[in-house]
Every structure is written in C-alpha cells, then in structure tokens.
C-alpha cells in the first residue's frame, strides 16, 4: 500500500492516458473527422457511404487510375490503394475490415507484389492492438493539433469566434492521372524504377506470393469468384526484368486454382498512358474499364 501511495500520481496519470486514448480510438478521428489525413482505404469507405461489403476491384494506384467505377457495368467497388499490395488485401480479409461479396477482381502491376515497397503506414491493419491510438497516428495528431492551436490563438487575438474551431478539411479524393508525361519524364521514371527494382527476383516478392496463396484459399473456402488482371505497362519502355518470372509464378498458382486471368501488361498503346504504370483518365481509363467489363461479362455467361 505504501508503494501504491508513493506512485499514486503516476498511476493516475497512466490511467488517465489509457482512458483518454481508448475514448479517442472510439471516436476514431483518422476515419470520422475531416480534420485528419485519410488513407485510400478510408477514402474508399467514405465514397461509398461507409459501406463495408460488396464486390471489389483491388489493387494499387494503377487500379485507381484505370478503373472508372461510375462508368463500369460490373459495379465493382474500386479499392485501389496507394502502394497497395496483396499482403494488404490479405490483412483486410483476415481482419474482416471489408467483406468481399459477389466477386473479387485483383489488379497486379509491376509493383503490386514487391515485398519491400514502402506503403502508407496509416492503413488500419498495420496498427497492433496494443499500440496506443495517439501514438500510432502521432504525426497526424501533431499536424491537426498544430492547426487547432493556431486557430484558437487567431480566434482569441482577433476576438472572432468563427476562427476558433475553423480548419482546412483534409483531401478526401484519391489521386487520378490526367494528361501525359513527356518522353524525358518517362525515361527518368523508368531509370528510377530500374535502379530501385530492376535487380529484383523471386525472393523479393516471396511474402506476396504467400499472400496470393492465402487469398486463393480464402476465395475457395468462401466460394468467392476470383479474377486477376495484369495491369497495363507502357510498352515503349522495357518491362522490368523480374516480371517474366513473377508472371510465371503467379500464373502457375492461378491456373492450378482455375482462376481466370486477363493479361493487359503490354497490350495498350502508349498514347493511353499518363506515365509508365498509370493510364490517363481521359484516354486510357475508359478503354480499360470497357475491356474489363466485357471480360467479366464473358466469364459470367453460362458455358454452352
């Protein structure tokens, strides 16, 4: 008891922190408040009114740029995530953060399976259960907190109550790709990709191959139709050397599981691209959306 009394202030302080962190996590401002940055998964839910189930087209930003959900006849929820990988999809399904229904279409491009590719650390599945909420998103609390302090100061000095709680709503839309990079910009982009990834081999996408195996098994268990699209690459520039081996490893698994694939890797004219991996929203995305729609419709037709 004496020891408890001695450290009572620290214990009360710890209890207050735990309670406040718990209450903040219930509020979940990273999802619910426009004061805070939103990642692409949260943006997907936001633009669908919080809907957390339905048919999905999953991938990275290449899917976001290429698939125009509002023009598609397939009615898939576009779940392109910035730097999204198959390990992310596995985590989403494993943690039941979204219930995929009807069918799951996965877009794989030159970067979707690279294990070491840095991604958005704010994706919900990266936070361990034991990690304090405020600590996990400390950079964004600092950003929003600094803005709040400035507005409180400004409102107090100017005696303007409307300024006290004013804030700049954080961007809620995903990045799309308009226009076309110049030849010099594209070459610089290719040089960068080649320097960062050109030397890679099977060992560098081992975790994502394991995630693919898990996803195939999950879809089989839940009787969920799985389809895979090899996303377009600007064929004016050499495809990364590891892609041939990657396609072989992935297609071997998909064929064994009877998963249909649509290979668009080098099928599109360069005029449809914004850069090496993102289709132009005006020219390329409408063509891609129609082609994927037609392919999915052909799969849905009963065999004669």
What can you tell me about this protein's structure?
The chain is an alpha/beta fold and 304 residues long. The chain has a single domain, classed as 3-Layer(aba) Sandwich (Rossmann fold), CATH 3.40.50. It is 47% helix and 10% strand. It contains 13 helices and five strands. A five-stranded parallel beta sheet has the order 2-1-3-4-5, sandwiched between helices. α11 (206-221) packs parallel to α12 (243-257). The mean pLDDT is 93. This is SGNH/GDSL hydrolase family protein. It comes from Paenibacillus cremeus.
Annotation, overall tally of beta strands: 5
Q: What would the principal axes of the Cα set say about the shape? A: globular
Unreliably modeled segments: none
> Major β-sheet, in short?
5 strands, parallel
* CATH architecture label: 3-Layer(aba) Sandwich
How far is the first residue's CA from the last residue's CA?
81 Å
Strand content: 5-15%
- Indicate the mean pLDDT: 93
Specify the CATH homologous superfamily: SGNH hydrolase
The secondary structure category is: alpha/beta
Strand order of the biggest β-sheet:
2-1-3-4-5
Please state the CA-atom Rg, rounded to the nearest Å. 23 Å
CATH top level is Alpha Beta
SSE order in H/E notation?
HHHHEHEHEHHHHHEHEH
| Number of structurally distinct domains | 1
Binned, the helix content reads 40-55%
């Amino acid at each position: 008891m004496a020891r408890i009394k001695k450290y009572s202030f620290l214990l009360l302080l710890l209890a207050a922190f735990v309670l406040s962190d718990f209450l903040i996590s219930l509020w979940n401002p990273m999802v619910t408040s426009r004061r805070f940055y939103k990642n692409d998964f949260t943006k997907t839910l936001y633009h669908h009114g919080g809907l957390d189930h339905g048919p999905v087209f999953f991938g990275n930003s290449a899917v976001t740029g290429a698939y125009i959900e509002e023009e598609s006849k397939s009615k898939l929820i576009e779940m392109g995530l910035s730097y999204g990988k198959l390990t992310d999809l596995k985590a989403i399904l494993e943690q039941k953060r979204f219930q995929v229904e009807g069918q799951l279409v996965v877009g794989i491009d030159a970067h979707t399976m690279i294990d070491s590719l840095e991604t958005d650390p704010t994706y919900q599945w990266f936070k361990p259960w034991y990690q304090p909420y405020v600590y996990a998103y400390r950079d964004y609390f600092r950003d929003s907190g600094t803005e709040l302090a400035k507005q409180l100061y400004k409102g107090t000095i100017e005696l303007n109550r409307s300024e006290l709680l004013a804030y700049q709503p954080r961007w809620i839309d995903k990045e799309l790709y308009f226009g076309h990079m110049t030849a010099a910009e594209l070459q610089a982009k290719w040089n960068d990709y080649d320097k960062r990834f050109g030397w890679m081999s099977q060992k560098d996408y081992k975790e994502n191959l394991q995630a693919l195996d898990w996803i195939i098994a999950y879809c089989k268990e839940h009787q969920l139709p799985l389809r895979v699209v090899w996303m377009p690459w600007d064929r004016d520039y050499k495809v990364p050397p590891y892609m041939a081996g990657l396609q072989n490893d992935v297609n071997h698994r998909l064929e064994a599981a009877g998963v249909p694939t649509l290979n668009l890797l080098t099928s599109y004219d360069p005029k449809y691209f914004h850069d090496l991996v993102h289709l132009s929203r005006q020219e390329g995305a409408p063509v891609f959306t129609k082609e994927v729609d037609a392919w999915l419709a052909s799969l849905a037709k009963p065999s004669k």
